[in-house]
Amino acid sequence: MTRKAQLRRVQRALEQAYGRQRWWPARTQFEVILGAYLTQNTSWKNVERAVGNLRSAGKLSLGGVRGLRLQELEKLVRPSGYFRQKAARLKRFVEFLDARYDGSLTRMFGRARTSHAAMMGLRQELLELNGVGPETADSILLYAGGLPVFVVDAYTRRVLDRHGILPYSAPYEAVRRLFEQTFRGRNPAQTFNELHALYVSVGKTHCGRQAECDGCPLQPFLSPKQRARLASTPSAAKRQSA
Ligand code: SF4
User: Fold this and answer.
1) In sequence order, which residues have a C-beta less than 8 Å from that of residue 61 and are 6 or more positions away?
2) CA 174, CA 221: separation in Å to the nearest integer?
3) Are 94 and 189 found together in one domain?
4) Which of 91, 111, 156, 185 is placed for a possible disulfide with 199 were both Cys, Cβ 3.0 to 4.6 Å?
């Protein structure tokens, strides 16, 4: 079976198990961008606390963050960890937006929507900002901009690796391209949005650092060899002896 066929089979099984996901848990484009920065190296719960602080202070907007002094922003985003670094990076993003797109997210995403080359141009601009790696850039493009790029995260990598589709160490761009070539449809942005959310769902419920394969919708796709390898992991051994 080809990799593309494997990915389609996984997609069907996850859709059947979890249904429509309707991500991302944010109300505005700016909140998505904020979340994409704040979620680095922390849990979503901590991001929510930082976002809650900004909301209570009436600063949960582009203008709000723009108008805050760096030290004030640091204080508000403190619950998300690495708060000095994150506050500085958020400020840098706002400076970039102001300088390059007159402070307008609509203008930034609007230009990127005109062609694939323009979208990749914006992706490159984001990647050049301090603290923006491919996952953050693609989360911004997909979830804030509604642009057709697939977000590759640790959950996705684990599933692909454990099912022998691509090794965990595969380059980010290779994984992204494989998904984008496999799921070209009429509405790729919506497909990528749903698909990424489905991988997060299976990752959170079954395929975390330790695989909990019992009851997982993807368990039937494991080969006997893969099952044996996963069964010998510490968590599975612990379950069996419990
Ligand atoms: S938990 Fe097991 S069956 Fe489920 S995706 Fe991970 S490796 Fe596959």
Assistant:
1) 28, 30
2) 22
3) no
4) 156
Final residue of a domain: which of 95, 126, 144? Answer: 144
Task: Extract the tokens encoding 81.
Answer: 């960890």
What pLDDT sits at residue 94? 97
Decide if 242 is inside a domain: no
* Domain match, 133 and 45 both: yes
Compute the distance from residue 211 Cα to the ligand 1 centre, in Å. Answer: 6
Rounded to the nearest 5°, which phi and psi values hold at 94? Answer: -65, -40
CATH code, 60: 1.10.340.30
- The DSSP secondary-structure symbol of 78 reads G
Band of the pLDDT at 14, cuts 50, 70, 90?
very high
**Is the Cβ atom of 144 under 6 angstroms away from ligand 1?**
no
Q: Are residues 36 and 140 in the same domain?
A: yes
Ligand 1 centre and the CA of 226: distance in Å? 10
